[in-house]
Amino acid sequence: MKRDWNTIEVLRHARHDWLNQIQLIKGNISLNNIARVNEIIDEIVAESKHQSKLSNMNLPQFASLLLTCNWENHLFQLEFECVEQNHLCADDHRLANWTNVFFEVLDESIKKFHDNYLSITIEPQAKGIGFFFDFSGIIISKDHMEDFLKSQLSLEIGVKVQQFSECELTLEFFLPNNETKE
């Protein structure tokens, strides 16, 4: 599922996203719904700030995965939040690989053509980085997801499942900085 995006494809998708947002603003202006216009602009600003923080975390593979996720053919819509901006020394390759596998397992476990949403909160901490994944939607293959999560228990990242049902999955893990793993 992972795709290597070239510059033209990235610009085309980014331009498409911006045009959609501008059309949304224009439509609400024509309806004289100025309050909604202001909400949309605030959402765009907040999203841009999170993208900027993510891009500056020294995690290029992970950032690329999140920034292009909604352009891929996933069965869920992704949004993410970076609590603060830090230059991190975490294992980017390992983090990106784990997240990509999680996305694949999630796609294999959820209902197609349903409103499935995944929210990721990224919280840099003194000795590493905390990740909080919150999925809402319909999980049709709970066993497949459980098998994946059980396989993750032995890894250093320490995946902890907070809630797991047919319509929600909340998990967290902590990835230590490279220099604190010793």
Number of helices: 5
- Class inferred from helices and paired strands: alpha+beta
Q: Termini, distance in Å? A: 34 Å
Number of strands: 5
Q: From N to C, what is the helix and strand string?
A: HHHEHEEHEE
* Gyration radius from CA atoms, angstroms: 18 Å
Low-pLDDT segments: none
Helix content: 40-55%
Instruction: Describe the global form.
Output: globular
Q: How do the strands of the widest beta sheet line up side by side?
A: 1-2-3-5-4
Task: State mean pLDDT (0 to 100 scale).
Answer: 89
Quaternary arrangement of the chains shown?
A: single chain
Q: Major beta sheet, specifics? A: 5 strands, mixed
The amount of beta strand, in percent, is 15-25%
Short summary:
The protein has 182 residues and is an alpha+beta fold.
Walk me through what this model shows.
- The chain has 182 residues and is of the alpha+beta class.
- The protein is built from 5 helices and 5 strands.
- The chain has helices at 7-30, 34-55, 60-68, 92-109, 142-152; strands at 77-82, 117-125, 128-136, 160-164, 168-176.
- The chain has a 5-stranded mixed β-sheet with strand order 1-2-3-5-4.
- A hairpin with a 2-residue loop joins strand 2 (117-125) and strand 3.
- The protein is globular and about 55 Å long.
